[in-house]
Specification:
The chain has a single domain, classed as Growth Hormone, Chain: A (Up-down Bundle), CATH 1.20.1250.20. Helix content is about 75%, strand content about 0%. Strand 1 and strand 2 form a beta hairpin. One of its GO terms (cellular component) is plasma membrane. InterPro entries: Lfuc_symporter_FucP, MFS, MFS_trans_sf, MFS_TsgA-like. Pfam families: MFS_1.
């Protein structure tokens, strides 16, 4: 007799491993891109607000393509959706080569937009596919396990960003006789043109290499047989959407996911600016980001184990309360302790994305594919909120606080939303045994 609480059956092992590897691939893209906001701001002489067009394009691509990806997967298969996603991913990454040649910020933004079309296909198909590889009882734990490989890819992306990109930008290597850093915008035009040519090539190369890796994964997945465990062609998309809109736990879950993605991207993108405001370099700021990611990975693995014994909604609420405490510290404490509070926030963010995902999709039945699209569209939070935070940072000071400190009120409010969802979903589902 099959044990219903088994996390993963042997017959699904190879598909699980291959699809889980994709979580690392899009994690790498996410976290090599976050530091590019600071890099492009310097090299292309942009305001904080304009530089966040990088994030707007990156996460806006999810919102644009999530529903088309769900419709495609529903009509054809999860495997074909994944293959198309990998193709778009590779295309966007390889377009960084001509973007660097033309030295056009808009070209880079467009390339990232196409790249995230691919990521939207991958996330819309891979997340529900992992949920379907076994019983519903273990689905949230299974997704947490698969999502544990996402921050590993993210950590590698951070290392590449710090050691390959930020550490080698010539625009940040100009100093006067006293050792004080010279602002790039004050240099003569010939020096700036030379630095820009060099630095854009430095930014370009990791993306081109990534595009080639993605093409290899496309070939591997194309030749491996995948089980079609959950995709259904007979469900009408409009009927599915209507049912989902009536589902309060799902609907609230989309809002919570918007809040989570916004909080994550704000905390990880602007940790460099927070560190720079304390007199640290971009590279040093990125090292703090890497520590945050290390804590995130450990906490994600630990929370996957804890979820075996603690209700997912209650654990989500507790972690959100922890995030409120640490972001409040990042706002009110001016100095290195405030930076450490910001780093510690990653401990509490660790379980949020897959747990919200699992809770929201836990009782949608046959509407999983379209439900997944709505949760992937929620990633648009990463496009809008960082731009609002950048607008705050551009003020330089807010009252008695440095503007970069005050800007973290936005992720703090996001954690409030997530804590409310954790409490609500626990009362709605666990108490009622749904």
């Amino acid at each position: 007799m099959k044990n219903p609480s088994k996390l993963l059956e042997k017959k699904y092992l190879v598909p699980f491993v291959l699809i889980t590897s994709l979580f690392a691939l899009w994690g790498f893209a996410n976290d090599i891109t976050n530091p590019m906001v600071a890099a492009f701001k310097t090299v292309m002489e942009l305001t904080h607000t304009k530089a966040t067009l990088i994030q707007f394009a990156f996460y806006g691509g999810y919102a644009t393509m999530a529903i088309p990806a769900a419709l495609f997967a529903q009509k054809y298969s999860y495997k074909k959706g994944i293959l198309l996603g990998l193709g778009l991913y590779a295309t966007g990454a390889l377009l960084f080569y001509p973007a660097a040649q033309f030295q056009m910020f808009s070209f880079f933004v467009g390339s990232l937009y196409i790249l995230t079309f691919g990521l939207a296909f991958l996330e819309t198909t891979a997340n529900p596919f992992i949920l379907s590889l076994g019983t519903q009882e273990t689905s949230t734990r299974r997704l947490n396990l698969a999502q544990s490989f996402n921050p590993m890819g993210s950590f590698l992306g951070m290392i590449v960003a710090a050691k390959v990109v930020l550490a080698n930008l010539d625009a940040d290597k100009h100093f006067d006789e006293l050792g004080n850093k010279i602002d790039f915008s004050s240099l003569d035009e010939m020096t700036k043109a030379t630095d820009r040519l060099h630095d854009l090539a430095i930014i370009r190369d990791p993306y081109v290499a990534l595009g080639l890796v993605v093409l290899v994964m496309l070939v591997v997945i194309a030749v491996v047989k995948m089980p079609d465990t959950a995709h259904q062609t007979h469900i009408h998309p409009l009927q599915s959407m209507k049912r989902l809109l009536k589902n309060k736990v799902y609907r609230s879950g989309v809002i919570a996911q918007i809040a989570y993605v916004a909080a994550q991207i704000m905390c990880w993108t602007f940790i460099i600016q927070y560190a720079e405001n304390l007199g640290l370099t971009k590279e040093a700021g990125q090292y703090h980001n890497m520590v945050a990611m290390g804590l995130f990975i450990v906490s994600r693995l630990a929370s996957t184990i804890i979820l075996k014994y603690v209700n997912a909604s209650r654990l989500l609420m507790w972690f959100a309360l922890g995030g409120i405490v640490t972001t409040t510290g990042a706002i009110l404490i001016v100095g290195l302790p405030g930076l450490y509070c910001l780093v510690a926030t990653s401990v509490f963010m660790s379980l949020m994305f897959p747990t919200i995902y699992g809770i929201a999709l836990g009782n949608v039945g046959q509407d999983t594919t379209m439900g997944s699209a709505g949760l992937v569209m929620a990633i648009v939070g990463g496009a809008i909120m960082p731009m609002l935070q950048a607008m705050i940072i551009d003020f330089e000071t807010v009252g008695w606080l440095p503007a970069v400190n005050a800007s973290f009120i936005l992720p703090m409010l996001c954690f409030v939303v997530i804590a409310i969802y954790g409490h609500y979903s626990y009362k709605k589902l666990a108490v009622n045994n749904i």
